[in-house]
Amino acid sequence: MTGVGGRIDTITGVRIAGPGREFLMDDEPVDVFIEDGLIADIAPTGALPARGAVLDAAGGWAVPGLWDNHVHTVQWALAEERVDLGGVRSAAEAAALMGRAAPLPDGRRIGSGFRDALWPDAPGLALLDAATGDVPTYLINADVHSTWLNSAALRREGFASADGMLREEDAFEISRRLNAVDPERSDRAVRAAGDRAAARGVTGLVDFDMAWNADAWPRRIAQGFASHRVEFAVYPFDLSRAIGAGLRTGELHEDPDAPEAGRGLIRVGPLKIISDGSLGTRTAACSHAYPGDPDNFGVLTVPPAALAELLTTATGAGLGVAVHAIGDRAVTAALDAFTATGAVGTIEHAQLVRHADLARFARLGVVASVQPQHAVDDRDVVGTHWALQTSIGYPLRALQDAGVELRFGSDAPVAPLDPWQAISAAVTRTDDERAPWHPEEILGRDDALRASVRTALRPGAVADIAVCGADPRVAVGEALRRMPVIATLLGGHLTHRA
After folding, report:
1. Residue 368 pLDDT > 90
2. What is the mean pLDDT of the chain?
3. Cβ count within 10 A of residue 382
4. Are the C-beta atoms of residues 206 and 68 closer than 8 Å to each other?
5. Please, which pLDDT band fits residue 134 given cuts at 50, 70 and 90?
6. Cα 75 from chain centroid?
7. Residues 377, 379, 381, 385: what is their CA dihedral angle, to the nearest 10 degrees?
8. Residue 1 contacts by C-beta under 8 Å, 6 or more apart in sequence?
9. CA neighbor of 482 nearest in space, from 423, 399, 404
10. Measuring CA to CA, which residue among 42, 30, 3 is closest to residue 463?
11. Given this model, what pLDDT does residue 415 score?
12. Global confidence as pTM
């Protein structure tokens, strides 16, 4: 039996469930033949003799390898060693939990994933100090746009805050410092995380780590990383460095001496620009004020003129752009910048979109890189903090009907890196016993799968394939979210086998 890392030449007895199915006459099992990392032929099972190493799918269902189009890779990988705050329901509970946590080897306590938007009490410095004492303690909001530090941590980092909260750029700086661990440690965590992703059928992701990833990924490949493809982003603070290094979106970025298993996996991604805040931190730039805070319309962290300048510079250098825009004011400003500069790329998140901007998205060819799970996770927060907004919240069907290309992601670690959760959220708009949230935005399964892949299962296509234990075109609810993945192939090589 061929194990992980081995090459598969023939997949037998598999049903095509995702893109590529439209080229077949029926839903009967087929055999898929692979040569040089590409799908060479697809034929009815048994019509042609199997050759080479065989993966017997035993009637399973195949979809093209899945992509997560928005991941903060190191932060996602390191979350495994941090205190999970996703379930806490108050500031007092979060502080107490951190007070009981064991410090990491560097002497710091780090927790992540808290959501304070609906807490009955507010985070405060005295509260956290009382629970955590002199051990530097850091709590990272699920949206990463705010962090809560105790006095020892504030002193260590050289920041001051009356309530211990740091927001936007200050919060990002804290996350960058916490993520800047010893490369051996972070690379080990990334390798383990890559294996977990492969077990969910993932064959590619877009890495939005706030770091210089042009060195990190070749280093990981040299150490044997071969779990999935990567497109890595650069940030404005590294834009001049990226241009000087000749980085151009879409080009391969690898060491010519890289191990064979890792060749062709790393490409330059876009320039990532964070143009506004977030809903969870109540800083997303919106048309209407946040309830109870009449002067708070969120923040445009990059003014329109500066945004246009960045897009112009990136476009001239051959870089695509990925503009983080959550509130409707930010989405409009981003579309204005795309219009003025002719830049190409994505708007990341697009959680609140004006009706008039739907057609602009499509007309400009801007891709909507969205995270369907966020709609499910945020529905209660939206009902409170965006109750006065009149734009469309977390649109999917509205964008698609306008002719906009959708790409799905998780924003991991904000949501789990699992495309099946994103697909399920898109086709159900719920993950509990409640009725679907805004069911008019539900997508069909074929549409959700299309937004989760980059290829189709047909001859000539790259052999990035996920073989599933259930039919994703009929699975519902929890069965879809927990889709069993029998095997994952990356260019014909096994990265996961159940």
Report:
1. yes
2. 96
3. 20
4. yes
5. very high
6. 12
7. 140
8. none
9. 423
10. 42
11. 95
12. 0.95
Location of structure tokens 């990334």: 190
Going from the C-alpha of 188 to that of each of 107, 176, 191, 224, 225, the distances in angstroms are 20, 18, 5, 11, 10
Encoding tokens for residue 355?
């009706």
Rg of the Cα atoms in the chain:
23
What does the alpha-carbon distance between residue 263 and residue 260 come to, in Å, rounded to a whole number? Answer: 5
CB atoms under 10 Å from CB of 210, counted, come to 21
> In the block, which residue shows the tokens 């009907």?
401
At residue 393 the predicted structure's pLDDT band, cuts being 50, 70 and 90, is very high
Beta strands in 168-276 (DSSP E): 202-207, 229-234, 266-274
The DSSP 8-state label assigned to residue 300 in this structure reads B
Using CA of residue 206, residue 141, residue 374, residue 297, what is the dihedral sign?
negative
Here the contacts of 425-434 (C-beta below 8 Å, separation 24 or greater) are 425/372, 425/373, 425/375, 425/376, 426/372, 426/396, 426/451, 427/480, 428/476, 428/477, 428/480, 429/375, 429/376, 430/376, 431/373, 431/376, 431/481
Give the Cα-Cα-Cα angle 317, 320, 325 (nearest 5 degrees). 130
- Beta-strand runs (E) in 185-320: 202-207, 229-234, 266-274
The 10s digit of each residue's pLDDT in 172-207 is 999 999 999 999 999 999 999 999 999 999 999 999
DSSP H or E stretch at residue 323: strand 321-325
pLDDT digits (tens, 9 = 90+) for 74-119: 999 999 999 999 999 999 999 999 999 999 999 999 999 999 999 9
**Per-residue pLDDT, 137:** 98
Concatenate the DSSP letters of all residues of 440-485 into one string: GG---HHHHHHTTBS--SSTTSB--EEEESS-TTT--HHHHHT--E
Q: What is the C-alpha to C-alpha distance for residues 385 and 306, in angstroms, rounded to an integer?
A: 28
SS3 205: strand
